[in-house]
Design a protein that fits this description.
The protein has a four-stranded parallel beta sheet, sandwiched between helices. The chain is α/β, with parallel strands linked by helices and about 280 residues long. Strand 5, helix 6 and strand 6 form a beta-alpha-beta unit. Helix 6 packs across helix 12 and helix 8 packs across helix 11. The chain folds into two domains: about 110 residues, Rossmann fold; about 160 residues, 3-Layer(aba) Sandwich (Rossmann fold). The two termini are about 50 Å apart.
């Protein structure tokens, strides 16, 4: 085994860009032939003083990868590294040079912009993950929800939740309402940690809901016996009783409601955002 090759990353942000590039390249090298390691990641480096401190800490044998957008600072760092004969690569500059030639304009050279986009992206992924985990009564972190949607089976809880998560960045939990005393007691206990203003009750007219449930039953119950067992699920009398139970529950608990009958998800979501006090300006990037 040869001596350990050490790599240092220097960034005016988190160093994530350089780290991902390094990982993509190093995976091509077999560590049984050469041993290497990431020695350190220097983050938020934006002054000559910080560069000076780093130069005192790194060894002449290290490989330095850096992503510093400031042209003056990156040029200064490159000169100091060259003076010491340290192998280094400014991972941003070659790409910036090519793109500038192609676009015909110079970049803004503002540090931290990618971090903003990166954080927004990963924040949205976390939001969607939360919403999926808390679908249909699942999940254990309901107190973290930005909104909790309640509704009978087939009242569009899941598509509305996912739409709000994907397009408006809300962590949404949705829970089915079932006409059962024990289940409702459990529901109310779960909601004790949630601000009542975040709870939205979905309503859908019985006739529409019965048709939707009948269509749903047709997909899953092909045999006559199975269809007979699901008869009460979409029977208008039973559905009407569930609707009244649901509406009375919302009224008793003082929860805000939204009627979803024959409405587009975008329209429903807009009303929910307004009830929750969030601004609405179409799809959020």
């Amino acid at each position: 085994m040869s001596e350990l090759k050490k790599i240092v990353i220097v960034s005016d942000g988190t160093g994530g860009t350089a780290k991902r590039l390094m990982d993509a390249v190093l995976v091509q090298y077999d560590q049984t032939e050469v041993e290497y390691s990431l020695e350190h990641i220097y983050q938020q480096v934006r002054t000559h003083k910080e560069i000076g401190r780093i130069l005192k800490e790194i060894d002449d044998e290290d490989l330095v990868l850096f992503s510093v957008i400031s042209r003056k600072l990156s040029d200064y760092f490159s000169r100091r590294l060259e003076d010491r004969g340290i192998l280094h690569l400014n991972i941003l500059q070659p790409t910036l040079n090519i793109v500038s030639k192609f676009l015909g304009v110079h970049p803004d050279y503002r540090p931290g912009i990618f971090r903003i986009v990166d954080d927004r992206y990963y924040g949205r992924i976390d939001t969607i993950g939360y919403t999926v985990e808390h679908d249909d009564g699942c999940g254990s972190l309901i107190e973290q929800a930005d909104a909790v949607l309640l509704g009978l089976s087939r009242s569009c809880k899941t598509p509305i939740s996912v739409y709000l998560a994907c397009n408006h960045g809300l962590k949404v939990a949705n829970i089915p309402v079932v006409k059962d005393t024990v289940i409702m007691e459990n529901l109310l206990r779960r909601l004790e940690s949630v601000d009542p203003k975040k709870v939205i009750g979905l309503l859908i007219q019985p006739e529409r809901l019965a048709r939707m449930r009948e269509e749903r039953s047709g997909y899953f119950a092909i045999a006559p016996k199975a269809r007979a067992e699901l008869q009460s699920y979409h029977e208008i009398g039973e559905v009407t009783q569930e609707f009244r139970f649901c509406r009375e529950l919302y009224r008793t608990e003082g929860w805000q409601t939204v009627d979803v009958t024959h409405r587009a998800i975008e329209e429903i979501s807009k009303e929910i955002l307004q009830l929750l006090g969030y601004p609405y300006s179409g799809m959020v990037e």
